[in-house]
Design a protein that fits this description.
- Helix 2 packs parallel to helix 3.
- Strands 1-2-3-4-5-6-7 form a seven-stranded mixed β-sheet, sandwiched between helices.
- By secondary structure, the protein is an alpha/beta fold.
- The protein contains four helices and seven strands; from the N terminus they run αβββββαβαβα.
- 32% of the residues lie in helices and 37% in strands.
- The longest helix has 14 residues.
């Protein structure tokens, strides 16, 4: 069996409860037989409408927003983004999973990105349309 094939069979996910704020850590056995962390996904916020995670990566870390951002969770979503800055000052904010965001949430998100230099990517059509009709600048 080749070393690459053996490495592929040694992946496992640790129990999230045992890793504190981590949603899961994937450990990979390297060719030297030592385990190394492949990626860590931090669960920053979750409610019945929204999930915010930060995946630590080489280079900028990836923050994912999935669900809906509105008056009921906007402050918590922005607090989660600020917590992501404590993990990594260099962030990419992936909005591809946002199904709905109100104007105040969009303004807060864009203000956050502008203030810290985060890159906003995968902006859904409905968010771009809201930017257009409200006169907000398109990021990037």
């Amino acid at each position: 069996m080749s070393a690459h094939r053996a490495e592929a069979t040694e992946h496992r996910t640790l129990d999230p409860a045992a890793t504190g704020s981590l949603a899961g850590v994937t450990m990979v056995m390297g060719e030297t037989g030592h385990a190394r962390e492949a990626a860590a996904e931090h669960l920053l916020y979750v409610d019945d409408q929204l999930r915010v995670t930060c995946t630590v990566m080489p280079g900028p870390s990836l923050v994912r927003l999935e669900g809906e951002v509105d008056l009921t969770n906007r402050d918590e979503a922005m607090a989660a983004l600020r917590r992501a800055l404590l993990i990594d000052a260099d962030l990419i904010v992936d909005c591809g999973g946002i199904g709905f965001i109100d104007l105040a949430g969009l303004r807060a998100l864009l203000g956050f990105a502008e203030g810290c230099g985060a890159v906003v990517r995968d902006i859904p059509h409905q968010m771009r349309r809201l930017m257009d009709v409200s006169g907000l600048p398109q990021p990037g």
